[in-house]
Amino acid sequence: MELKAGDVVMLKSGGMPLTVAEVDGNNIECVWLGEEGDLFRETLPRAVLDLALVMPDEEEEEDEEDGEEEHAKVA
Question: Which of 20, 37, 62, 65 has a Cα-to-Cα distance from 27 of 20 to 30 A?
């Protein structure tokens, strides 16, 4: 599994999504927001991480659809 800064990962054991901040060999520096909005940063071994499947928010999808409809009206 090739990881790069900006990838979203999760611990293989579960938990919340983490964002890869930096990759240094098998050491992956991750950042995430806690439940109260605190920013956390931790370096984890690559072996404990999996790529996360990130689903777009429904609200973002609706905004995109609205923009497409308005664009179609203008054209």
Answer: 37
